[in-house]
Design a protein that fits this description.
Oligomer: single chain
Shape: globular
Distance between the termini: 63 Å
Radius of gyration: 22 Å
Helix content: 25-40%
Number of helices: 9
Strand order of the largest sheet: 7-6-1-3-2-8
Structural class: alpha+beta
Strand content: 5-15%
Number of strands: 8
Order of helices and strands: HHHHHEHEHEHEEEHEE
């Protein structure tokens, strides 16, 4: 990537050359990774990723003190970008769309579910209830997008009256998307938590009160430092009664925010489309031992006047 004369004249530090060779060699490693990403080695890879990221972070911090860091990293990133597909480059935020794409610009996907989705007989880690339908006849469900689905599921799975929760991808184009594909911004999916609840014990209004209060619905395609269309704010309903409650709650909360000088709510309210289960390691993530203590939600510190929904929140 460097002109030979620049190397000969020592215009490029040796540390930069090391970055360049490392970047060029990434292609082979990435191809190997993609070959097993959907195969039997995927779970082992997922366990290895946090360690790899930590190591990479230490190496970058160390290299940052060297003279050739800026040029070297540029070389590495360029080589990586040329070697990568959109789905792998997206993990580093390269070329990630900032808004929803036209349908024909999205990844097509596959007819088969991702191999590391929860098994059909999987039980909820915290509640011990089924993860898949059929659910008891009296149950209802709503899907919510409010940023990182680890964080959002943690809010609802502990609420009395909630029968089951599961995280996944919704409102997109790509069939059976993987986490990497969703993160690329090229599937149009949102990261959502689907809440299955008993309306005789908890109302949709109770659920939406938590939804509005615990994230920032005014930032388009962003929640805190998490940026991308998969972090957009959304309420996805399964019947017309839910739609009416959702729309009314949005009007109520907008007034609360406007009175306090906040911006316009960007939350989309749509009929729920096909829900694709996220990988099993994402399910009930915050309830599992050894989980990473992370919360990407950015609440505004305002309360939702729940009493205003008392007559329409069943």
């Amino acid at each position: 990537l460097f002109a030979a004369k620049d190397v000969e004249q020592d215009k490029v530090p040796s540390s930069s050359l090391a970055f360049g060779f490392a970047g060029a060699s990434m292609r082979r490693g990435l191809n190997s990774f993609r070959n097993v990403r959907r195969g039997v080695g995927n779970k082992a890879i997922q366990r290895w990723i946090p360690t790899a990221r930590s190591f990479a972070g230490r190496m970058i911090n160390k290299a940052a003190r060297s003279k050739g860091f800026a040029v070297g990293m540029g070389t590495t990133l360029a080589a990586y970008a040329m070697a990568s597909s959109p789905r792998t480059a997206a993990a580093f935020g390269w070329g990630k769309p900032v808004e929803l794409l036209e349908k024909n610009a999205c990844i097509a996907g596959t007819e088969s579910p991702i191999p590391d989705a929860p098994a059909k007989d999987e039980k909820h880690f915290l509640l011990g209830t089924p993860m898949y339908s059929p659910f008891p006849e009296n149950m209802e469900m709503v899907s919510l997008g409010m940023g990182c689905f680890w964080c959002s599921e943690n809010l609802f799975m502990r609420m009395p009256g909630v029968y089951s929760t599961h995280v996944g991808y919704a409102q997109g184009v790509t069939k059976n998307p993987s986490y990497e594909e969703v993160c690329s911004g090229r599937t149009n999916h949102n990261e959502v938590v689907r809440v299955v609840y008993d309306p005789s014990k908890i109302t949709l209004g109770d659920i939406l009160k938590v939804f509005w209060e615990r994230h920032d619905p005014t930032t388009l395609n962003q929640q805190g430092n998490d940026k991308g269309t998969q972090y957009r704010s959304g309420i996805y309903y399964y019947n017309d009664a839910q739609r009416k409650v959702a729309e009314e709650s949005k009007k109520i909360y907008q007034k609360v925010l406007s009175d306090r000088g906040f911006s316009t709510i960007t939350t989309e309210i749509e009929q729920a489309q096909e829900f694709y289960y996220a990988e099993v390691y994402h399910q009930q993530y915050d309830a599992k031992p050894g989980s990473r203590q992370y919360c990407g939600l950015s609440p505004l510190g305002t309360q939702f006047p729940s009493e205003s929904l008392s007559s329409t929140s069943s």
